[in-house]
Amino acid sequence: MAYSVSHNNFSTIPLFVGFLVVASSLAHVLSSPLMSDSGNRQMKDRTFKPAKDIQKLRRINAYLKKINKPAMKTIQSPDGDIIDCVLSHLQPAFDHPELRGQKPSDPPARPKRHNSTDANPENLQLWTGSGESCPKGTVPIRRTTEKDVLRASSVRRYGRTRRRHIRRDSTGSGHEHAVVFVNGDQYYGAKASLNVWAPHVTNEYEFSLSQIWIISGSFGNDLNTIEAGWQVSPELYGDIYPRFFTYWTTDAYRATGCYNLLCSGFVQTTNKIAIGAAISPISSYNGRQFDIDIMVWKDPKHGHWWLEFGSGLLVGYWPAFLFSHLRSHANMIQFGGEIVNTRSSGFHTSTQMGSGHFAEEGFGKAAYFRNLQTVDWDNNLLPLTNLHLLADHSDCYDIRQGRNNVWGNYFYYGGPGRNVRCP
């Protein structure tokens, strides 16, 4: 979707820097060359240690056999991805003991005051550009390859976050944020439109993302989150394309949850969107802007958390039983950007957030979220109130809030990372 809304000047807005109510930690894994086009191809030109390497290869092949389901149709994406059209009841979610033998849940009632077309969606991903599509009754799944798994520190950790101490402020964690959040109430979902960029990521151990967080629980071991947005992560995908992604955890990223469909959990229902696939088109500096709509909300009838992408397209849902605190409701909603700063060269990273430009540059130059809304107990979409802003490294990445009749509550955010004020 392209928009050309005129930019409104901001007044100076103080940035909240006390504590960060954030609990997102994404994976830092090892890098290797881009993926092969076969998940089970034997590694070439590699010297094996007789026991250790062969054992690792066997573990990888066993994992690939489990995660890559038989395809009814295979589509080659221009970016090198292979998209497998998998029968809906064979997708990874139904490996879960509590889902085995079940059918996907019926579509939920959408929140009131929500406009959706349910028409044919825009071409939002590269793999659909050729006109190829997955048949009805199947779901498109990005094939996991041997090289994907080899970039991870271990087969067990692939597609999951590296365990770390979760803290209320992110200073020293390597994760830096520019976010808006609301808390202090019971929330049953959130919606926003955000424009998509391809920020520069300095090395394979870093990423840049923009997303919505649905959060419940404390910031200890019981943290529950649902996350959806776009990310550039060379370590996870082997390239620098912005990709539509999801994540969930129910124990503060320790053992449960994963990205996309890389474990049993999220149930996909659409045959039009591949989670983890590259988004296209994207925004350009001082040029056309392209944004995506994302909504996550709790089905009042069954309690599942549903995901909508684009103009009314239901992607699927996180079953209620996956969660502890989120089985009831969220106690915090957060919108914004996050990067990882490894300081690999001894100074602050040049990994960009958003467009790589500061919020003050405004429309066409800075990244934005617009029409921020939450869902209440009665399944109503409501504008946000009592917003808090936080840029925990504001000389590197900042944020500015606004409101008007067209965009409702909105904010610009992001930055270049290392600069004269951010050494």
From TrEMBL:
Biased composition (Polar residues): 117-131
Region (Disordered): 94-139
Top-level taxonomic group: Eukaryota
Sequence ranges assigned to domain Neprosin PEP catalytic in this UniProt record: 169-423
Protein name: Neprosin PEP catalytic domain-containing protein
Lineage: Eukaryota, Viridiplantae, Streptophyta, Embryophyta, Tracheophyta
